[in-house]
Amino acid sequence: SFPGGRRDPADGDAVATALRETREELGVAVAPSSVWGQLRTLPDRHGMTVAPVVANLGPLEALTLNPNPDEVEEVFTLPLAHLLREENQGYTNFRTASGYGYTLPVFLNGPHKVWGLTAIVTELTLELLVPGRY
């Protein structure tokens, strides 16, 4: 999943929360000037509201990640070209106890499967970055 967490009282807004969480979880300081914007808010499965923030981190090769082992088990990246290949895209159907069904996107990458809220945010980001290709 992407870095994230609850808004602290000291956070001015959702962007400040996202930048703080990225620093705390991945050890990456993102400048506010690198933020492109905020996607629409989304509900998570616990009824909380998630406010995805999109930022340009520059070339990944230039980043030094220092993941917090208490919060991050593993870090991996997916190139844009990989995400855009149809063979790496899919959907998963879910059914609730009440019989309500819904479909969510899934992105495949070897042993890694991007699904749930992370896949929804990935899909929304792809729709913005490469309209007409995704």
From TrEMBL:
InterPro entries named in the record: CoAse (IPR045121), NUDIX_hydrolase-like_dom_sf (IPR015797), NUDIX_hydrolase_dom (IPR000086)
Under Gene3D superfamilies, the record lists:
Nucleoside Triphosphate Pyrophosphohydrolase
Locate the Nudix hydrolase domain: which residues?
Answer: 1-101
Would you say which domain of life the source belongs to?
Answer: Eukaryota
Keyword set includes Nucleotide-binding: no
Report the PROSITE patterns cross-referenced here.
NUDIX (PS51462)
Query: What cofactors does the UniProt entry give for this protein?
Result: Mn(2+); Mg(2+)
List the Gene Ontology MF annotations in alphabetical order.
Answer: coenzyme A diphosphatase activity; metal ion binding
Keywords recorded for this protein, A-Z:
Hydrolase, Magnesium, Manganese, Metal-binding
User: What protein name applies here?
Assistant: NUDT8 protein
Task: Name the source organism.
Answer: Poecile atricapillus (Black-capped chickadee)
